[in-house]
């Protein structure tokens, strides 16, 4: 899953949060401490919840655009989001360069 827009218009809306599949679950599942052992199990379980979440894209875009460093958001771990954020930032820079050059 990738971030589709440069600046989503809905990322700060409260609406998507209300529809999240994790809304009634223990937040510790989505914010485990560390990335190995028990945390690995929690991350996998959180990702499974995210995989069926109706607002997964909005959640991921919010996390990427607001640089949420910790936890599972939009079905992506911290490391996975770092990669997506780097790609997103590169696209932003390229778009800015193209705009300035035009
Ligand atoms: S994608 Fe995952 S973390 Fe985001 S709202 Fe849905 S269940 Fe929660």
Which spans of ≥5 residues are poorly predicted at pLDDT below 50? none
Ends: how far apart? 30 Å
Helix content: 40-55%
Count up the helices.
4
Tertiary shape? globular
Secondary structural class: mainly alpha
Strand fraction: under 5%
Q: What is the number of E strands?
A: 0
Provide the residue-averaged pLDDT.
90
Task: Give the SSE map.
Blueprint: H1 15-18, H2 38-51, H3 56-65, H4 78-101
Helix pairs in contact: 3-4
The protein binds iron/sulfur cluster.
Tell me briefly what this model is:
This protein has about 100 residues and is mainly α. Helices cover about 50% and strands about 0% of the residues.
Describe this structure in words.
The protein is an all-alpha fold and 102 residues long. It has one domain. The chain contains four helices and no strands. The chain binds iron/sulfur cluster (SF4). Iron/sulfur cluster binds at residues 20-22, 30, 49-50, 53, 55-56, 59, 72-75.
Which terms summarize this structure?
globular; binds iron/sulfur cluster; 102 residues; 4 helices
């Amino acid at each position: 899953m990738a971030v589709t827009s440069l600046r989503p218009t809905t990322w700060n809306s409260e609406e998507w949060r209300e529809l999240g599949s994790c809304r009634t679950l223990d937040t510790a599942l989505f914010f485990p401490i560390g990335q190995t052992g028990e945390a690995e199990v929690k991350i996998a379980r959180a990702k499974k919840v995210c995989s069926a979440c109706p607002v997964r894209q909005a959640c991921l875009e919010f996390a990427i655009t607001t640089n949420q460093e910790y936890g599972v958001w939009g079905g992506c771990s911290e490391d996975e989001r770092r990669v997506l954020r780097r790609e997103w930032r590169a696209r932003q820079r390229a778009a800015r360069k193209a705009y300035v050059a035009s």
